[in-house]
Amino acid sequence: MGSLAAFLLLLLLVGNFQLSLAAPRPRAPSIQHPPRTPFRLLVANASAVNASPNTPRVNVLVAEPAGAPTVSSPKQNVFAALTTAEAASVVQFLHQDANINLTATANAGPWDNSIASVQTVYPNKALSIDYLDGSGVVPPRYARVSVNVQATEEPYVEHYLVGPLPISNSSTAVPYTSISSQNTSRIRMYTSDFDATSSYAMGQAELISDIIQDLLGAPGANFDWWGTEPLPDSTGRVTQWLEAWAPPSGPFDAQTILPTGLQLKTDITGRDPSKWSFGGWWFNNLFYPSHDAFRSAWNSSGFARPPRMNASDTAWYGTDRVGEQLPFDTIPPPRSVQPKSQRFAVNKEQNYVEWGPFSFFLSFTRDTGFRLFDIRFGTSDDSEKKRIIYELGLDEAVAHYAGIDPVQSSTAYLDSMYGFGSMTLGALPDYDCPRRVFSYATFLDATYHANEVSTTHTNAICLFEADTGYLMQRHSSDTGLSATKNIAFTVRSVSTIGNCESLIDTFDYVFYLDGSIETVVRASGYIQTAAWATTGSESYGYNIHSGLSGSMHDHVLTFKCDVDILGTANSFLKHTLVPAQVTYPWSTEARSTMQLQKETVANEDQGKLNWPDNGSGMFVVANVEKPNAFGESPGFLIKPSRGGAGKYLTVQNSSNLKEAGHFTSNHLFVAQRKDTEPFASHSDNVNDPGNPIVNFNDFFNSESLEQQDLVLWFNLGMSHVPHQGDLPNTVMTTAQSGVVITPHNYLSNDASRRTNQMTRLTFSADTGIVSDVASFGAVALTGSLNLAALQPNLTSYAPDTNVRKFPFNPADATRIRA
Ligand SMILES: [Cu+2]
């Protein structure tokens, strides 16, 4: 789906948010019956939300805890999201430019130009570092703006760089080409005529309404028709495949597991509907190039009818509890509590966080959700707190399907188009995150700006400490025992990723006292399925229900990690355990053993890497010019931490992703870090994957990786061949993936030795009687807890808040103007 359609969809999502949180929505332009609420009602909806006394703006469940530590930010957050006032002023500035010829988004039709999104531009790294490290001034702030240019026969998305902010006489809006490896600021879009193409497809379905009634049990208008993006093929024609999906029953938004297997091809080249054409029907692994061909097959005696799933029977797809009760299961399960005050501090003005030996800033955008910046680690007794990661965040998520049918085979989602920020959901206390009672978790709101509306996700990010449930350290002998708790600090957000799949992903950045930082993604939700054909489906997944294929697919989520070890000049070490035959001076014959083979990745030609087979190797970002006391290079090691041995896309040179998916080819990439290469992907690449604005392959052009400013991109993900256990929803136990970065010859010892949360016992080897318990200064547990206060009242879960920014009201940029 292109930008406009995507944003209309987002508006619909926002407008309906109170009714259907996290509701899955078709990814591609859909034909909805009954039609969705017109998006222009958003303003009224938003006003109602703001005005309603029944809709609390502050979630009382997560009210600020008493006694939470505060901290002043050492520096201004130069990565901060645009404020609503900044975004509004940018919108107004562009509206004043007659050349851009904008229509207010709320009034824009398919032949109008309108603003799609306004986001912060992260400042140049050199300027940021000069400021953060003490010698420079605050870098100027800029916005990047996506504009849907549709008042033309060949619509496109244009990107502008606007600033400096605040808007002044020196501010300009220029095409934003500098981040494009293709030196372009625009990309074609083929979704401007969303309504007309939908009507056209419905018209074709009407022509075989008797067949649809017979095969699917209801007229075509009873189904939602959605499928692939309209995209140009190699001949230059623009085609789209749509499938009829059954409406789910009850409260369960389960449409992605209710495919009918009836698919329609249209040729919608150009903007003149009179020149569009019907391309064929697909049903039960057979293609019919004309209505007549389909009709004649349907009339024939041998016409095969595969089994159909039952969309009206919620028993197989409802998410409510079913079946016999488990033993003791009505009793409340264990909860985490914070016995005293929080042990971390958040400056909410600057989104600055300190926990243990770590500190960092948070930022948030529509396209990529929240990111961490200037992650510092260390304590003064060994190493001063120093920057170890300049930037860490998600760039793109791909879900690549395969199947015998055209829709599944043509589907590869690039989810930044939907926006990880726009699809972020408020965390559900006591479920997504621990509650704030007893000073436990802290929740942060997050705001993004799209379609001239600023939307605030309430409680979008939660920060909390938790006992990992296993020790950091333990050693015992016959006279003593030492043990250290493993307390970790988590920054978590929740997003819907993949509108069609409607998976809910949680993104965690987990900090450990030993200096490790783990990035973890977990997924749950309704899968996207395919109809099970009489023959052929067995090669693309499992038959998981009557008439239903689990539709195999890969998830690959691409994260950027800009590591800086003792400065920006670093090298990438590849230390591999290799089998060896060695004859030693003391051995009489060659011995079969192993050795450590030490290599440095010299340049970007070698920068596309996969995790070492069998875990027999180490990838380390190190500063080889600053050896430690023993001559080793201080660094941080990176490796998979959970979910298997890493993930890249099984499909190579995808026919769907074309030039827009090269970041999926390997587990890990190392390149020279550049301000002109801020993201591996681009949220508008999906409009025309053959001609992307950002082509990741262009980042790899033989440049040196030795003592340079290096950036890593690593992939998390999973192969997903859904089985019956994915019904009704995929479970997070196995649908998770993680990568950890951890100190490697960086400190002189294990950093976790600094925690007070440890003990050492001394006891008699003979009697076992404990003679001494060392507690190392940890405060003892005292007092009591009001457990009833832990009981959540989830009715005060707070929905998004929407603020329209245009027409602009200079007197109050934060308010909706009637
Ligand atoms: Cu999946």
Describe the structure.
With 818 residues, the protein is mainly beta. The chain has 2 domains: 8-84 and 333-754, Beta-galactosidase, Chain A, domain 5 (Distorted Sandwich), CATH 2.70.98.20; 194-245 and 259-308, Nuclear Transport Factor 2, Chain: A (Roll). Helix content is 9%, strand content 35%. The chain contains 8 helices and 38 strands. The strands form 3 sheets. It has a 29-stranded antiparallel sheet that branches. Strands 6, 7, 8, 9, 10 and 11 form a 6-stranded antiparallel sheet that branches. Strands 24-26-25 form a 3-stranded antiparallel sheet, with no helix packed on it. A hairpin with a 4-residue loop joins strand 22 (503-512) and strand 23. The longest helix is centred in the first third of the chain and has 13 residues, at 3-15. The radius of gyration is 28 Å and the shape is globular. The model is unreliable at 1-63 and 807-818 (pLDDT under 50). The structure holds copper (II) ion.
